[in-house]
Design a protein that fits this description.
heterodimer; A: 766 residues; alpha+beta; Aldehyde Oxidoreductase, domain 4; Aldehyde Oxidoreductase, domain 3; 3 domains; 7-stranded mixed beta sheet; 5-stranded mixed beta sheet; B: 160 residues; Ubiquitin-like (UB roll); DNA polymerase, domain 1; 2 domains; 5 strands; globular
């Protein structure tokens, strides 16, 4: 492949997103625009109390409403447990254990009738005591959410390397603290939904917004009792994913049961209130962290004890320690580390996966505590981080192999670009008046090519070069707006020598596309990219062999450039790929140019002690944030963000820039404004009015820079970028606020009323 | 479930008649009987801006606008911006700047930007940001969108 690594112009080019014209014209179809003949509309009735026995469900007033076609309760459907803890069911028959628990569902002629019918269902509850505080739930003898279990402990995780006691003995400074991370939610602009339709043979077609279509098909099969090979998943355009669609949630099998009960297609769409209340959240966490260093700043040990609120049922949130521990073990060089996490049931809503998958919650305490360590040692935060930054080729205590690693260069570039030294010095002098400025930094490491949590972390591709020289790239990968279709076309175009504008990417139908794990763990560029490149390489060789035979010259003398077959020595155009394929069809070999590839990354499943190289590569970043704090009102204004990322070779600088700018906005929201307020199990602020996303005028200037390490296994050197930009903003904000105010916050978000109150309480720590 | 009557509107330059109930919003009528689904129902309470359309040239939240208040008036939706397959300058700029990710906010953003440029053909970055403050985007962080608005403005000055 040596000559094909030579850039031809597609990789690294700022090519506009291929499907953007469909989106700017409003033509692309989201789940809200999928309609089928005779389709009914479904709605779901949820629990009104967080913990109760369901005494009686009276559906008669719903059934008597004209236009209602079916009403289902837990008594009417199979209650196959699903989810990571196998503790959720589509509808609940006997007990409700959190406020979002699904009690009944309606299919009707219109959405309006279906929702009205839900309001007419009378549920008699016997309210039961409930437990909402995870610390209380973790205590012996606490009220049990699942009485058949011994206690509320849903999962626990232990990881360690080295000898923490020895590390502590070598330490000149030790700091510790407790950090609390709150609930936030994805708040995708496009609300969730599904359309379920059975055909006359009992085969099921799901128009879905899932991020994991093949796993979805397999898992849904068990829940609804349809063989997986009889389930076709067609992904509608997805109006934002961010991990929110990585699991099956009850409304999805409910739609299938309603379709089965009525014999008609059924669509369920969430409204905005449901999207806030009834979608998964980011995993909240209480983290007790302790770490030490020698006088020169060399880190000696790190121990973390975490308590995670599982809510009443288990979705992916409960598995975030798996990612968190990578950060605790491997963000900077830590010779001795130990990590313990307990995940406990409560009667709260439950968390799913959310961009970063636990890494925001892990990076926050580590990076805030590093600044505290730096202060206690009298070392500049940049120096402390540089002293402990890994270099390429390092293997961490957990066995993560950093075959490409630009962490130190990210730190240096971010410092230089942000004016770190001068500003750090200038802001050290507390200003006059209420406006104080500060500058802070934080770094991160994240998987840059998936995570091998299944026996395969692979992706398939089918690529066809047709008789007019156009290319159809069928990829297993899923597009959620991140631009995978463009990046994959660029990679294949580079390999093939055929321009991107001749590509069509097909990526949304399990009946057509080959298998893929799904869109998560920042894996698509790396894994689907390598698969696309392999398929393109096979097609290129086939085209060149055929051209060589047709032209009577050795294949080694030929190249494909810009869709033409040229003489390698002087670039003279001899024929074009369309003509080569036509001759292949009609005259020479009676063959087509359709190739397949399956790429399996060289990563490993971890051992029972969670050791092993779970991803083929890792991405790194440093963010520097400059803030201005009004110490009277508590209003924090982010002035400037410098975001430096090592995502390997950048395939598309515009798309990558969009990932970083969007991740920074999401990370700033986590740090400063977004707070899903849950009291006694109820979401109190289920609207955009009360759940505050950053708006355009509130966004600071974002200066994005790249440290382009070339990953040896990445497609043209690329690594993943999807999650990284959201991960290390919050600690950088907190560190900047500390410099500005002398107050080190250990929980989020830094909303003005809270900041003002804390500052009014006087000097010291939270 | 109340009865409908015929509502006359001018949508994307064409006179149309649509059945509408007294409580229907402009968004209901556009997405329902008129089949113009470019305007999105992101929240139905005027908070996200995904339903933004132009009403007599001004950007409004179609989800908060009662359909009957629009009788006889001119509505422009995202479907009305491109003609004969040629994108409008704002649409073109959104494509070229990668101002689009999941795209759910995009039709509303494009119309808000179109309205902004109609009243201020040369906005500063700050004015461009203020211009779209009522439109939420979860994907882009707004940077590329502001870039697109500025590029569309520059293109407008080059080809007035």
């Amino acid at each position: 492949m040596s000559e094909s690594t030579r850039p031809r112009g597609a990789v690294g080019a700022p090519i506009p997103k291929l499907d953007a014209p469909e989106r700017v014209t409003g033509r692309i179809r989201y789940i809200h625009e999928i309609g089928l003949p005779r389709m009914l509309h479904g709605a779901v009735l949820r629990a009104e109390v967080p913990h109760a026995r369901i005494v009686r469900v009276d559906t008669s007033r719903a059934l008597s409403l004209p236009g209602v076609r079916a009403v289902l309760t837990g008594a009417d459907v199979p209650l196959v447990p699903f989810g990571h803890g196998r503790d959720n069911t589509a509808l609940k028959a006997d007990f409700v254990r959190c406020i979002r628990d699904e009690v009944a569902a309606v299919a009707a002629d219109t959405e309006e009738i279906a929702r009205e019918a839900c309001r007419r269902i009378r549920v008699e509850y016997e309210p039961l005591p409930a437990i909402f505080d995870p610390e209380e739930a973790a205590r012996p003898g606490a009220l049990r959410v699942w009485p058949e279990r011994e206690d509320n402990l849903a999962f626990n995780y232990h990881y360690d390397h080295g000898d923490v006691a020895a590390g502590e003995a070598e330490s000149d400074a030790v700091v510790e603290g407790t950090y609390r991370l709150h609930y936030v939610t994805h708040a995708c602009l496009g609300t969730s939904g599904i359309v379920a339709a059975f055909d006359s043979d009992g085969r099921l077609t799901l128009h879905s917004v899932t991020q994991v279509p093949f796993l979805y098909r397999r898992d849904m099969s068990r829940i609804v009792g349809v063989p997986p090979e009889h389930i076709r998943v067609i992904q509608a355009a997805i109006g934002g994913g961010f991990g929110s669609k990585l699991d099956i949630y009850p409304y999805e099998p409910i739609a299938i049961f309603l379709a089965r009960a009525t014999g008609r297609p059924v669509r369920i769409l969430f409204d905005r209130g449901e999207e806030f209340r009834d979608s998964p959240t980011r995993q909240p966490a209480i983290v007790h962290l302790r770490s030490g260093a020698r006088r020169d700043g060399t880190l000696t040990f790190r121990t973390a004890r975490l308590l995670l609120d599982n809510g009443a049922h288990t979705s992916w949130g409960a598995t975030t320690p798996f990612v968190m521990m990578q950060t605790f073990s491997s963000l900077y060089r830590v010779p001795h580390a130990a990590f313990d996490a307990e995940v406990v049931y409560t009667h709260n809503p439950y968390a799913g996966s959310f961009r970063g998958y636990g890494n925001l919650q892990a990076t926050f305490p580590i990076e805030v505590q590093l600044d505290e360590l730096a202060e206690s040692l009298g070392i500049d935060p940049l120096e402390l981080r540089l002293r402990n930054a890994q270099v390429p080729g390092e293997v961490t205590g957990q066995g993560l192999v950093f075959q490409s690693c630009g962490l130190a260069e990210c730190l240096r570039t971010a410092a230089a670009a942000s004016g770190w030294e001068e500003k750090r010095r200038a802001y050290a002098q507390a200003g006059e008046g209420p406006l104080r400025r500060g500058i802070g930094m934080a770094s991160m490491v994240h998987t840059g090519g998936g995570a091998k949590i299944y026996h395969s972390d692979g992706c398939g591709t089918v690529l066809t070069v047709d008789d007019f020289g156009s290319v159809t790239l069928v990829t297993g990968a899923t597009e959620i707006g991140q631009g995978s279709e463009t990046v994959l076309a660029q990679i294949a175009a580079e390999e093939l020598g055929i321009p991107v504008d001749r590509f069509t990417v097909v990526n949304s139908d399990t009946q057509v596309k080959p298998w893929d794990v799904g869109v998560h763990a920042s894996r698509t560029t790396f894994i689907a990219g390598n698969a696309a490149r392999m398929a393109a390489n096979k097609a290129r060789r086939k085209l060149l062999d055929a051209a060589a035979e047709q032209l009577g010259v050795p294949a080694g003398d030929l190249e494909i450039r810009d869709g033409d077959v040229v003489r390698a020595s002087d670039g003279k155009v001899l024929t074009d790929v369309g003509r080569v394929v036509r001759k292949l069809h009609f005259a020479t070999r009676y063959d087509v140019v359709t190739t397949t590839a399956y790429y399996e990354p060289p990563s490993a499943m971890q051992d029972p002690g969670f050791k092993g190289n779970v991803s083929p590569t890792y991405s790194f970043a440093t963010h520097v944030v400059e803030v201005e704090v009004d110490v009277e009102t508590g209003v924090i204004r982010p002035l400037r963000v410098t975001a430096v990322h090592d995502a390997g070779r950048v395939i598309n600088p515009l798309g990558a820039l969009g990932q970083v700018e969007g991740g920074v906005a999401m990370g700033l929201g986590y740090a400063m404004t977004e707070d899903l307020v849950i009291r006694e199990g109820r979401v109190l602020n289920g609207s955009f009015r009360d759940y505050k996303l950053f708006t355009a005028p509130e966004m600071p200037e974002v200066d994005v820079r790249w440290v382009e390490t070339a990953d040896p296994d990445g497609p043209f050197g690329a690594k993943g970028i999807g999650e990284a930009p959201a991960i290390c903003i919050a600690p950088a904000v907190v560190n900047a606020v500390y410099q500005a105010t002398g107050r080190r916050f250990r929980s989020l978000p830094l909303r003005p009323e809270r900041v003002a109150l804390e500052l009014a309480r006087g000097e010291g720590e939270e | 479930m109340s009865s409908t009557a015929d509502l006359d509107l001018v949508v994307n330059g064409e006179r149309v008649t649509a059945p509408a109930r007294p409580g229907d919003t402009l968004l209901d009528v556009l997405r329902g009987p008129l089949g113009l689904t470019g305007a999105k129902a992101g929240c139905r309470e005027g908070e996200c801006g995904a339903c933004t359309v132009l009403l007599d040239g001004l950007a409004v939240n179609a989800c908060l606008t009662l359909a009957w208040t629009c009788a006889g008036r001119e509505v422009v939706t995202v479907e009305g911006l491109s003609r004969d397959g040629v994108l409008s300058p704002v649409q073109r700029a959104f494509v070229d700047a990668w101002a689009v990710q999941c795209g759910f906010c995009t039709p509303g953003m494009v119309l808000q930007a179109t309205a902004l440029l109609a009243r201020n053909p040369d906005p500063t970055p700050e004015e461009a940001r203020r211009g779209i403050e009522g439109n939420l985007c979860r994907c882009t962080g707004y940077g590329r969108i502001v870039e697109a608005i500025r590029a569309a403005a520059a293109a407008g000055r080059a080809n007035p």
